[in-house]
Amino acid sequence: PVPCSQPVGPDDFTVFAHRGASALAPENTLAAFRRAGAEGAAWVELDVDVIGDGTVVVIHDSSLDRTTNCHGSYYDLTAADLADVDAGSWFTTPDGARPYTGESLPTLQAALEVAGEAGMGVNVELKSCEAGAAACRRLVDGVDALLEAHAERWPSLPVMLSCFNPLLLDRMAKRRPGTPRALLTKDGLLLDTWRSYVEEIGAVAVNPANLTLERGRVEEIRSLGYGVNVWTVNTLERARELSSWGVTGIFTDRVHELGALGRGG
Ligand code: G3P
Ligand code: CA
């Protein structure tokens, strides 16, 4: 059966601020989410994983190395340890300044608060949970509880879940059947088998990688009634081309330049 409710409807073109306004501020930080709100973003995308005490944190990688001043895995940290983690000092402006030094590694709870205050929808991407099955369960528990509280506090703000791992998405589907889900795909991963998974987990959209995406694939997915939200698209030219193919949304680091497309611009 064709899904009947879509967060990204056939007539919409939704622009997600990818990891926040991540061209202007350090990705997946509260500063990046606030900046996305200030730029008029309708939706923000963020990546989540879980630390040792069950706190859900916002980070893309499975190690702290690239985006913080710390090193190694975070799976054994507790919330108290987060005070030592600087997720902003790695980010330099074109003139070499580091204006975000001291920016914290955010919890999902704090990020949802910023998105709620700014009136933005949130696409929560669950990362792969490389710490094992118990950590995966903690991630599902934590995200479920936080989204429940978020829905009570901001009932009119949309939320979407996404993941490259269909099993994790299926687990979330069972917990939160009313929260729309999208299956992430990339070259060599789920691109040819997407349909069986979205049917199984009741997903409303497929979110494929930009660089290898072909028009025929978009048409195939759209013809079956599913949304297609493409990552990561950073030029107006490509965004307009994808829109002409029937794509329903894009993820961009440059919401300050492409956000207007989602507002009919
Ligand atoms: O959700 C779209 C995109 O964020 C998926 O890839 O690696 O940026 O998390 P990645
Ligand atoms: Ca992501």
UniProtKB/TrEMBL annotation:
Gene3D superfamilies: Phosphatidylinositol (PI) phosphodiesterase (3.20.20.190). The lineage of its organism: Bacteria, Bacillati, Actinomycetota, Actinomycetes, Actinomycetales. This is Glycerophosphodiester phosphodiesterase. Pfam families: GDPD. Residues 13-262 form the GP-PDE domain. It comes from the Bacteria. GO terms for molecular function: phosphoric diester hydrolase activity. PROSITE patterns: GP_PDE. GO terms for biological process: lipid metabolic process. Transmembrane segments: none annotated.
